[in-house]
Fold:
Amino acid sequence: MANVVTRDRETVAAAVPQWGAATRKYVVEVIGTFFLVFTVAVCGFSHSTFTPLAAGAVLMVMVYAGGHVSGGHYNPAVTMAALWRRRIRPADAVAYWIAQLAAGVIAGVVARAVVNPAQVTALAPSGHTLAATAVVELLFTFALCYVVLNVATSRDQVGNSFFGLAIGFTVVAGAFAVGGISGAAFNPAVALGAAAGGLFAWSTLWVYIVVQAVAGAAAGLVFLALNPSDK
Structure:
């Protein structure tokens, strides 16, 4: 029976045109990123105390839902890590970034329209708080990307069933720990979506994007250094 299932899957995969397979991946990235950013933004607009749990939970379920199609990145920093880890081609990485960032902006705008808050105060860190924001976003974005690479791309972890839980709870831990400092984005799509909705100030958005991109690249390089035979 296993051989029949394997042959059936191979037949279906062979029958799908290359452009069709690529489109499926990009659409999955749009869906997953949209629901992640939408959930975070709605929680932010409604001042929910359960934002860390909501963010981690929606990321977890979306990773389980779409991981088998696109890898379940939903985060340009994770895609950056996968690129340096050599698990995604540069052309696909660029397409992922476009899909993720576009979905993030749309989600932020839709979330604000749905909640329709009377007033929104944008998070605009400065001075020591801005430096602290850069540090905590760097650390927990690295942690998230590092966890993703180890539980979802390592050949030592093939077939595990806990990858979604590990990824989701990394966000939960980070959001509880430093949400009061940086807003706990750990994701350029979340940061951009929050700015589009008015939750983050545009003037400091570059700090989030730069440190998150650096964290993603660092996670990819660290994974390769610690797993030299896993390429």
User: Anything to note?
Assistant: DSSP finds nine helices and no strands in the chain. Residues 1-14 have pLDDT under 50 and may be disordered. The first helix runs from residue 2 to 15. Residues 2 and 8 are 10 Å apart (CA to CA).
